[in-house]
Amino acid sequence: MTDTLRVGLVGYGSAGRGIHARLLREVGAQVVRVVTRSPERAAVAEEDWPDVAVDGEVAGMLAHAGDLDVVVIASPTGRHAEHVRLALAAGVAVVVDKPLATTADEAAELARAGAEAGGRLTVFQNRRWDPEQLTLRALLDAGELGRVHRFERRWERFRPVPQNRWKENDTRAGGLLLDLGAHLVDSAVQLFGPVASVHAELRNITTPAVDDVFLALTHAARPDGTAVISHLQAGGLVGAPGPRTRVLGERGAYLVTSFEGEATPFAVLDEAAGEDHEGWLVRGAEKQPVRRAPGGHPDFYRAVEAWVRGTGPVPVDPADAVVTARVLDAARVSSAEHRVVQLDAP
């Protein structure tokens, strides 16, 4: 293995180029092969990464697996399973964008394949490294909120004219439940533990795929019998997005009013705080800015490099992605049958 992490990147669209390539460059990795059938995207990849090789198919890239330290799969979700299997069979470490698969059964099959291949699979749950997630985790660990009873997180946008992409049009593998819901559910489980029951309301308002999501998750009860309830929302037709995060505890609340530049009327609340803050600790009319915890999305790929080199653990256990997929499957059933779905203990 060379000093520089050598990456094969499957897909060079909004995820491949816009997210993965950007983070890989930030941590000093080198994209040496890209898979895309688009001549326009191939030209962009060649401009971004001098000496990069462009393949039209995944098999073409994997014929050169010996020149790669890790393959990053940023293809459409419906092709994740196919591409993960091919990459594992080629003997390379694999990072697959979330969601791992379109269903829990398929996700579990891929997780087993990763384990049988020596643990060479991880999932791009980069939102675990969001500043708000890291800051909230620090507040919870410090006991600043006391015992939490409700967690709310919204990922809302105002796009009255939707984009014309597979994410909006693919009713099986696209839609906000699988796209943003995978992040929202993973965040809730990481913070508050396993989910015991799911109530969901899912609609497609402006696109063929789901573009309006509400999830109510009841987490497993604590020893005293109490439980956190998570309310998670994602929408593409939300004229007044936010607030992004609200966590209610017996000693106060944590409030994040805005998120990554998305327009929201609540952003005005942040004008009085410094640039190094991430949300507010609120007790009624009293509020104080919370200092941002260190860390960010590039740390995912720093963890990937350590994992690939054998000096660190897997950044995200694929079993966690199976847990998330079980919740998303239950959400579909809940919405279709208008009932609360109970989940068995993992």
Distance between the termini: 37 Å
Label the structural class: alpha/beta
Helix amount, in percent?
Answer: 25-40%
List how many beta strands DSSP finds.
15
Give the H and E element order: EHEHEHEHEHEHEHHEEEEEEEHHE
Overall, the morphology is globular
Into which percentage range does the β-strand content fall?
15-25%
- Which spans have pLDDT < 50 for at least 5 consecutive residues? none
Tally of contiguous helical segments: 10
What is the rounded Rg?
20 Å
Biggest sheet statistics: 9 strands, mixed
Order of strands in the sheet with most strands = 14-13-12-11-7-10-9-8-15
Whole-number average pLDDT? 95
Structure description:
With 346 residues, the chain is of the alpha/beta class. 33% of the residues lie in helices and 25% in strands. The protein contains ten helices and 15 strands. It has helices at residues 16-26, 39-48, 58-62, 80-89, 104-116, 131-142, 166-169, 176-192, 298-308, 318-337; strands at residues 6-10, 30-35, 53-55, 70-73, 93-97, 121-124, 148-156, 195-203, 212-219, 229-235, 245-249, 252-256, 277-283, 286-291, 341-342. The strands form two sheets. Strands 14-13-12-11-7-10-9-8-15 form a nine-stranded mixed beta sheet. Strand 2, helix 2 (39-48) and strand 3 form a beta-alpha-beta unit. The protein is globular and about 60 Å long. The two termini are 37 Å apart. The model has no long low-confidence stretch (mean pLDDT 95).
Summarize the structure.
The chain has 346 residues and is of the alpha/beta class. It is 33% helix and 25% strand.
